[in-house]
Every structure is written in structure tokens, then in C-alpha cells.
Amino acid sequence: MNPRQRAALALTLAAALGLSACGGPKPAPGSGSRAPADAFEPVKAGWGDDSRGGNVNVLMSADFQTLDPGNSNYVQTANVGQLYYRTLTMAKEEAGKPPKIVPDLATDLGKVSKDGLTWTYTLKKGLKYEDGTPITSHDVKYGVERTYARDVYTQAPQELNAALSDDGYKGPYKGGDFKGIETPDDRTLVFKLKQPFAEFPALVSRSNTAPVPEKKDTKLDYTNHPVSTGPYKIAHYDRGRSMKLVRNKQWDPATDPNRTALPDTFTFSLSTAQATISQQLLADSDPTAVTLDSAGGLQASDAAELDRPEVAKRTASGLTGCTDILNFNTETIRDPQVRKALALAVDRKAIHLQYGGARFGKMAQSYINPDQRGYAKQHSVLDPAGQPKLDEAKKLLKGRSYPKKLIYGYADATARFKNMGTSLQQNFAELGIELELRPIPAANYFTTLAGKNMPDLARSGWCGGADSGSVRTTIDPNIGPSIDGKTFGFSNIPRYHDPEISKAMYELRDANGTSEELGRRWSGLLDRAMQDYPLVPLVRNVTRSVVGSAVRNAQVGYFFGAIDLSTVSVARRSR
After folding, report:
1. Rounded Cα gap, residues 505 and 525, in angstroms
2. What residue ranges define each of the domains in the chain, with the CATH number in brackets?
3. d(CA 66, CA 251)
4. What is the pLDDT of residue 323?
């Protein structure tokens, strides 16, 4: 998913595409065209320049949660990861549309058996790591095996694992034979599934299938220098401060039509205040700069600057598949009616304005949206305009036992997340509830939410639709059960687990049917779960990201919610 730091990546990608969040991309705004403040059509910036060379400077307010492809559920890692790792298939972005699944390390999207229980992939010839060592099928299998070591990799993607026959496998560090994948030779992988999974080609686009050479696996330290299989490699990484990517000379473009790899280098500034990022981009003080921060790093107070023609022509924008929500910790706020009262008290309109209003997002009534495949109507008592319903909230709380003090945790690098907490303080004070605002270091934010220190309330987001838009890509990871169905799932931040609904979700994972049919069933279960109010939908994001005047081929990824690093380049000279 965000991250723009997201709680997790959108999961279980799909190969069959055809849905679009909006119309086709508008012309690049180099001629002065620009999107109106309330328009959501995608706009590309500086498109069509194939200049090779130069450096792209990526300004970020916080470090990556991780760079280890086997321990990442974050869209920021997936975005930069395109530059240094490859997977069997790839979710290739196009502004305004869910990504398309295409072959990457594999020669095709896979061959499925008649019974649907095995998928076979063949690696392309000539694939090498940054040190010149050949990439083998065994390395891809090992990359998947690592993600079963949940005691080591707490944020490892699990959707592929849930689909494979694993016989209780616990990862390579505890021994045992993993039977979910066979490697009959150095270029062939055979995946064995528990049940047919028609969208399996999308599952193997997840970072699980990034090859990892076993001899260079340093476990948690692997994040400091994952061995490159992509067009760039890590030359320098100072955690929390800076990183530099340089060309990987062992990468063969003949095997990779998906990445343009036009810049010579990417540099990352990993501790720049968002207000500074906003000012630098608007002023064009660094013509080679972009950002991956949410909302393009722009502050709400700077939004009017987007109307200036000089800025407008440097702005890439688009409605994304990313939705922000407010999570209630269902282990500390146990009563669904209390959670409903809190949800009714939230002034979502005020929060929307803190996000920048219509220019930066649409009010969301659900975690899923009609653009996702399998969507079915969701029922909500929340005001569509975002106005709080304090009288109804007070009636729900009357005569009930509920906490008089709650804690809201927020990522400390983003001002609007703190401002959201201030708004919530005012809302809950009307109910006689004191809300403490607790800053959490942005680099550790989602690790904290996944651990024992999860606060009572916390904002997160999810970038759904990194495929044909299946609603399962949002529902299952965010409120679904664990792999064994016994508790809440690993990226289920509200810790929601209802005996009946969660059991139905667990069984639905192995159900047969078309994606549309199964999606409607997932939608129905989400609708039921939302009557327990584990979360409050807030804003479906629109990203408007200003880039430096020398940056070309900038587009906002529908899935990434930020500038897609795999397409950008630098002009030979500013124009």
C-alpha cells in the first residue's frame, strides 16, 4: 500500500485489466495546459523526452521503512524498488489507470495446469546480479522462502504465501523443505497452489519473488544493501540521511523492456522537512528534484501556488487508488457501538480540508471504491459531506461504559497528520473524551502500528487496485484474518477479528468463481464488518506533485500515489 508511505501495498494483483479510474492522460502540460483544482484526470509533466544521463534528486521527509524486498508492504519501497530489484512479473504503471501486469524476470505471465493448481515460469536468459553472478530459479524460490520467516520479517507480504501449499513451513532459518515451489532446473519454477487462483500472475509481481542469493542473505541487515537485479544498485546508504543509486552495469536492457533507466543516478535526501520540500519544489530551486512524500509534499497553505502557470506546467497529477482511513484499535476500544459513536463524531469535512480539499482528494465513504472490480454498494451512516453527527454519537454512548481518555498516534514528519489529531481532539471533547496526541517517528510508524504499542487510534492508508482493481486487494489485508484464520491478519491495523465474518473471509480465499463474483462476496463481507466500525474512511487521494524544471516523463502512479521513478528522466538542458 502507502509510503507516500502506506500501511501496506495493495495485494493480490491481477493480470486481467480493463478498469480505469478516469479518462486517458491529458497532454503533458509543457504547453501551459493544466488540470482545474477539482479535476481528477491524470496529467503528465514533461512527457516524451528520452534524454539519457543526469541525476534525479528525490526529496523525502523520512527514510524508507525498509529496502528489503522480502520485508516490505510499503508503496515507497515498491516505487524505489523498481530501480534495484526485479520480480517474475511486474505491475507496470500508467497514469490514471490500475497498473498492467507484464512479464519481468519471467518470459511470460506463466503457464497454468488444467486443474489450475500449478503455475510454471521460465526465467529469461542472461539475467545477472550486480556482481555478475547468474540469477537462478533457486534464488527466486529462496526469496519466497524468506518471507515465511515471520519471526524475522514482520512486514513480509503474505498473499502469495497464503495461496501456496506450504505444509506449515516456517522459513529457511528453521530448516525443513519448502514444497510450495519446485525448481527442476536453473531457469524453471513450478508453483503449487492450495486452490486455483486465476489471478496468480499478479501475485508473483509482489516483492516476494525478487531473487535473493542465499549466501548474501544477512537477514535484517539485508535492508542496508539488497543485491541488485535491476538497472541500478545502491552505491551509498546512510540510514535516515541519504542514499545514492548508480547504474548496475550487469543489468541487460534487452531483458527488460519495462524500465527506461534514463538517468545515470538517483540521490535521495531522507530527512528534509515537508515544508522545505514544498518550498523547494515550488521555487524550482533544484531543477532535478522530485518527491515521493504524500500529496507531493505540498502543504495545504501552498496549494494556491499550483495555479501559477510556471508551476502548473511542472505538475504531474492524478486520482490514485490510495485511500486514507482512521483505524480504531479493536483490542482497546472493544464495544462496536462505542466505535460507531466515535466514527459519527469525526469531522471528516475538516480533515478533508486539512488534506487540501477537493484539489487533493475525494471524500471517501468506504475503503473500496466503484472503480475496483467486484465492488458492491456499501452502506454507511456517515454523512457523505463529512459533517459530524454529535447528537447521534452522544445517544449511542449514553449508559455505556467507554474510555474517557484515548491516544492518537501519528507519523511525526507530516503536519496534516498531527492537525488531524487536533481536529479529533475537538470532536471527542464533545463526547467527554480526552485525546492525547502521540508522535511516532515516521521511519518506524507502521512497525509501531503492527506491534504491541499500537495506539487507540491511528491514521493509515492503502493503495488498492494495483491490478485490475479487485476489491480483495483492499479488503483481505486490511480487515481479513491471518493466514491460518485464527486471528487478525498481519496488516490488519484495527486488529479486527469477528468469529463469523473473519471465518467467512478465510473460507472465501479458497473459493472458486470469477473475480467479479468473488469480489461481490468480499464486498458483502466488508459491508458487514463495517457495521462494527473498525475504521473510518477519510479521503481517496489525488496527488499533485510538482517536479523540477529539468525533470521529464513524470507521472503519478495510480498504485504508488507518487511520482513513478521508473519513468522519469532529466533533460539535457533546462528549457
Report:
1. 7
2. 40-102+230-318+544-567 (3.40.190.10)
3. 23
4. 92
